[in-house]
Amino acid sequence: MASITIKTLLWASSSALALGLAGCGGDTSFIDKQNGSGSGSGAGSTDNSALIAARAGFDDLIASLQVEGGYLFGDYDATDPATQKGVLDHGVDTLSQGMLQLAIEVKSSFESLPVTTAPANRGDFIYRQNCFAGLGDAINVGCYVVTGEALKNVLPSLYDTWDFEISKADLRGLRLTAEQLDQYAGRTSVFILENVNPDKNLNDVWVSGSFSYPYQQTWNLNQIEQKRFVTINAEGSEESVQNNALFDEDLIVRVNGVEIPTTSFDTTVNFQDNQGIAFGGGLNQNDEVAVFNRVSGESIATTNAAANGDFTVTFSEGLTDKGVFTVYDDPTSTNGDFYNLGNAVDVSVLLNDNPNRPEAEVVNFSLTSTPGDAASSSSYRVRTDGIKVLDLRNLVSLEGQRVENEEPDLNASAFTGSINLRANDIYQFSLPQNDGDALVFDYTLNGIRFTGTSTNTNGVISTTATTLTNGVPYTKTFNP
Fold first, then answer.
1. What is the pLDDT of residues 119-134, one digit of tens each?
2. Is 157 helix (H, G, I), strand (E, B) or coil?
3. What SS3 state is found at 404?
């Protein structure tokens, strides 16, 4: 029988961690000088129990981050199946590259197009005079929107392997519930909003819907090519818009009781206007057309063909609310490009890589960003010197689990706090091309603040992290 090596959380006792981490830079000399054990016994002794407990807490946090958040120390490579991806890795990568970078790339592509004198379609960007028609806070505002697979026409080749239209057929075989099928199905839409103030105009970018993108992960078995399925949830997000999550392949069309492939028709789907599907040609007048949901088998609508054989089925199924991730390209920046995250957003990431269980596992995270609020205003900056700074000040929650069966454990992890990291390349820091570079970080996670630096030496990462425990610096050096 093949053996399985699985990287799990190190919820070891503090004493075991102290022994295990001594060779990784754990500094016990200060405690040792305080009467050996630091128990407080003996003449002139000092009670160091609080200091010992604080350091043990930091040891535990670093141990868990080495498993769940190598991304935070620059030890992350989405294309390397041997690099284990933890809960924080999936969450932070989805936020930074899955939504933030997507918004920035789409806006950059939009800006490269010729400017029209009057509002009109610009390439694959469709102009809407009233973008959300009351569905979001930005009502009575025009916008340019690009949706679904049309996004690949405006994005670099990096996105060719992404999927911006997630049908229920795409989710087949993932052991999901009916609620999860509805949750993760949908199209990605990116909106670029107008503003009557020319300085603000077309600087506000909204990302909504569902998408998937690849990464590599192996558990010493066979499967390497993996996907993250991402959905921005309406519940928990400050903004929401309606999203079309029903696709041709999700439908069964029967004419006079006989199933007809939807590919046999000239099909137009436009839920924004008529919430329906129009099929063209090939039928006789009054032929009965019935449409069913392929997944549930339920009837959606029935109608009869017109004299020319055309028919239109109008229905509201498939319209769902999705949350919105907003990015504002601040034109007042005094140091490079500055992107402010403008709202609260709640995101779920579906993973199907863990061979310990047949069901998919989920990483959930939520972030609150209030512009102007020093405690929560999150941002991303590309400085004039090329340094990139990701500043997430109010990570409300990031949680997930990795089930293990040999020694049964949920391996549940949950993190809150703030994340600030900066480097020339924060997304692919571990690659050899960043040899000699440094990643500087300042984190507060689960109530513990620590700062430090990771250094890339020909693709090998070494990290030094320092926290103040009862006012005394405590430094750890390790390889993530």
1. 899 999 999 888 876 5
2. helix
3. strand
